[in-house]
Write a structure and sequence with these properties.
globular; 29% helix; two-stranded antiparallel sheet; alpha+beta
């Protein structure tokens, strides 16, 4: 009942389920959101900017990884990724 943007992302999800059943993963979240620029109510165009990753994985050892499954990297994606890594420098980020 979950819709994915690609078959590759659906396969990654299935792999996560198997890793969770094997005890390698404690939990994972679909489409976690990260605020890149807060909303500005004083401006007409102050909608803010957010980055939505594909997965946030918490491993059994407590480490956390943010994963984006990409087939094609758009210019918007590249820009938002740069902003994400600048705002959250300690994030463990991986592209698949």
């Amino acid at each position: 009942g979950i819709k994915f943007d690609s078959k590759k992302e659906a396969r990654f999800y299935k792999d996560l389920k198997l890793q969770m059943a094997a005890g390698e993963i404690k939990e994972f979240e679909l489409q976690p959101k990260f605020i890149l620029l807060e909303k500005d109510k004083d401006r007409l165009t102050g909608r803010g900017i957010k980055y939505i990753a594909d997965f946030k994985i918490t491993y059994s050892d407590g480490s956390v990884e943010v994963v984006d499954v990409k087939g094609y990297k758009t210019q918007v994606y590249k820009l938002k990724k740069k902003l994400l890594l600048a705002k959250y420098p300690d994030i463990n980020f991986r592209e698949v």
